[in-house]
Write a structure and sequence with these properties.
With 245 residues, the chain is an alpha/beta fold. The chain is built from eight helices and seven strands, in the order ααααβαβαββαβαββ. Helix 4 crosses helix 5. The protein binds S-adenosylmethionine. It comes from Aureimonas altamirensis DSM 21988.
Length: 245
């Protein structure tokens, strides 16, 4: 071989060797990086609450009247709203679940996903709920139309949990929602409703007209903003005379 050709062959061999070595080093480095990134991600705190807060704020900016809160309900309010629910409550309907704060709390109390129907008007939330609660029923609809759907093959509801912004809804819509719920609630069933206001968000005159009564069952300052929870039920007959307390 000519000396000049030998020189080129040597350079080519060195280049090939360098390329292979560089590739191996990069592959090893990227493997180490992926492992380290995976370990670091596993050590990070659960980012779901942060992402939910972002989603909620974005939804509120798009539809402030419908969403009516800048952040999802916190744990204390979720526990209060679902404190009386358990695996033996029967079918539960949740109105306006948003990102699912109350849904998670009722599941933690033993309510099965198959016994839950989520009625959410916002498409951004109903798609998320379908991912999160694949065994629950999700309906993307106005809660005022509840009376038009058969959710549990004719079974009555054991309870209704409502995160709806009743104070920003027209009276007619609130009446339709309450009628839709109480037509399908078991005789002893209740609707749980929270409010940021100082009194029950269903006015007394409306409760009277529908034969309902409301009782404040608790409140929490550990929520943004602080909130109170009301239990709304059919009015009980007052008993007079012998036997009554
Ligand atoms: C105040 S947010 C409460 C969300 C969630 N329950 C929470 O506490 O974090 C009100 C929710 O009700 C939904 N909503 C408002 N009007 C509705 C309607 N007519 N029917 C069904 N959902 C409605 C909104 O899209 C939103 O998810």
């Amino acid at each position: 071989m000519e000396p000049i050709n030998s020189l080129f062959a040597g350079i080519a061999a060195l280049n090939a060797f360098g390329l292979v070595a560089t590739r191996l080093t990069l592959r090893r480095a990227s493997g180490l990086f992926t492992d380290a990134a995976g370990r670091a991600l596993a050590m990070l705190p659960d980012m779901r609450p942060v992402r939910d807060a972002g989603r909620f704020l974005a939804a509120w900016l798009r539809a402030p009247l419908r969403v009516a809160a800048v952040a999802p309900s916190g744990r204390a309010l979720s526990r209060l709203m679902t404190a009386e629910l358990s695996g033996s409550t029967g079918p539960v309907v949740e109105l306006g679940p948003g990102t699912g704060s109350f849904t998670r709390a009722m599941i933690a109390n033993g309510v099965r996903q198959a016994d839950i129907a989520l009625i959410e008007y916002g498409p951004e939330f109903s798609a998320l709920l379908a991912e999160r609660f694949p065994h629950a029923q999700i309906r993307c609809m106005d809660a005022a139309n509840l009376g038009t759907v058969d959710l549990f093959a004719g079974r009555l509801f054991g309870a209704v949990v409502s995160g709806l912004p009743l104070l920003s809804m027209p009276r007619r819509q609130v009446v339709a929602i309450l009628k839709g719920c109480f037509e399908r609630l078991e005789p002893e069933g209740a609707l749980y409703q929270f409010t940021y206001g100082p009194r029950c968000p269903v006015p007394k005159s409306m409760l009277d007209r529908l034969g309902l009564e409301a009782e404040r069952i608790g409140g929490t300052l550990a929520n943004i903003p602080p909130a109170a929870v009301y239990r709304i039920r059919r009015r009980r007959q007052e008993t007079h005379g012998a036997g009554s307390a």
